Amino acid sequence: MTTFAPAVAQARERGAADAAVFDAVEFSALSEMIGEDGVREMVEIFATETRQRLQRLTVGGQTCATLVREMHTLKGAAGTVAAPRLALLGRTFEQAAQRGIGPTSDDLKAIDTALEAFLAAARTWNEPADINGR
Fold first, then answer.
1. CATH fold label, 21-124
2. Using the 8-state DSSP alphabet, how is residue 127 labeled?
3. Where are the domains of the chain?
4. Per-residue pLDDT reduced to its tens digit, 87-119
5. What is the DSSP letter of 133?
6. What is d(CA 90, CA 43) in angstroms, rounded to the nearest whole number?
7. Distance between CA 44 and CA 37 in Å, rounded?
């Protein structure tokens, strides 16, 4: 398998850097469907599974089929929890894996960075603004 993946560059070209880290409208809709406790639990599970996925990918040695499955799962799960940037990264890296291109350390770092940004936004979602409107 090729590991020189231009996937981060492709993701940037496709607007991943500009894609929202967090979709508050979708997140609110999800919260209305399953409740705030349910959505927070879902985000915790997503974070845990994504971190485990990153650890597995960091070790390397996966087949193309495994990489496609891992990235497809990331894409779908990110879409479910209203994380558009992670969903776009997952789609881009899934397409790269379908061409036999595995993720580089930069690719994995991009996923990790997007995950942490999403989690920070999700933690502050629905918090009341302070007196200065922040």
1. Four Helix Bundle (Hemerythrin (Met), subunit A) (1.20.120)
2. P
3. 21-124
4. 999 999 999 999 999 999 999 999 999 999 999
5. -
6. 17
7. 11
Distance of alpha carbon 128 from alpha carbon 74, whole angstroms: 30
Give me the residue label for tokens 């919260």. 31
Max distance between CA atoms of the chain, in angstroms, equals 55
CA distances from 121 to 3, 24, 79, 85, 126 (A): 32, 9, 15, 13, 10
Distance of CA 83 to the CA centre of its chain: 6
Measure the CA–CA gap between 14 and 75, rounded to whole angstroms. Answer: 15
Q: How far is 77 from 45, CA to CA, in rounded Å?
A: 10
Tens digits of residue pLDDT in 15-60 = 566 789 999 999 999 999 999 999 999 999 999 999 999 999 999 9
